[in-house]
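Whiteboard transcription, Tuesday session. T.W. wrote the structure tokens on the left side:
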């Protein structure tokens, strides 16, 4: 946008301001990249779009400059993972979910106001804790932030890192609200 000056009495059809829409896989599958003037996503999310028709919709949006694919900075990925662990969502979030949250953090550092389009409750919860706005696609979205601890239902072990299974007894860890 550098060098661009808006004509004096011009009102854009969609006032986006400094909002930057970040699309997760579900949003890409809904074809939002073609109805928004501009949006962002990650390589991980694009790779999850496997069927031919939707892949074409993603490719077209990239070609006409409506969708930008970004690999988030490692420090943002780290920050998103740390926050996920802190609220006990680490086992409920995929690598793609983390990449989407990290991209939103990247965009806020650049002075943009990211709005993540996602129906994933765990991702919405993480975004709330990170102070990032989200818009659900088909669901109501979470109403308030939640915090969980990840514990072993068999022996009571409490996860401290990224583990999904109990290192003591091998059971799948469960989320419990705190
Ligand atoms: Zn256990």
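and on the right, the sequence the group agreed on:
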């Amino acid at each position: 946008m550098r060098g661009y000056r808006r004509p004096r009495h011009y009102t854009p059809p969609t006032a986006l301001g400094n909002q930057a829409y970040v699309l997760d896989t579900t949003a890409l599958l809904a074809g939002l990249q073609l109805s928004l003037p501009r949006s962002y996503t990650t390589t991980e999310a694009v790779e999850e779009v496997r069927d031919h028709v939707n892949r074409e919709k993603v490719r077209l949006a990239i070609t006409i400059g409506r969708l930008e694919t970004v690999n988030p900075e490692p420090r943002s990925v780290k920050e998103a993972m740390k926050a996920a662990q802190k609220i006990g969502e680490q086992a409920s979030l995929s690598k793609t979910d983390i990449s989407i949250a990290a991209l939103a953090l990247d965009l806020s550092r650049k002075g943009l106001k990211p709005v993540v389009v996602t129906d994933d409750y765990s991702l919405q919860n993480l975004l709330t804790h990170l102070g990032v706005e989200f818009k659900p696609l088909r669901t109501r979205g979470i109403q308030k932030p939640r915090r969980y601890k990840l514990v072993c239902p068999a022996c009571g072990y409490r996860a401290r890192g990224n583990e999904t299974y109990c290192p003591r007894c091998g059971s799948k860890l469960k989320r419990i609200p705190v």
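Someone added at the bottom: The longest strand covers residues 19-23.
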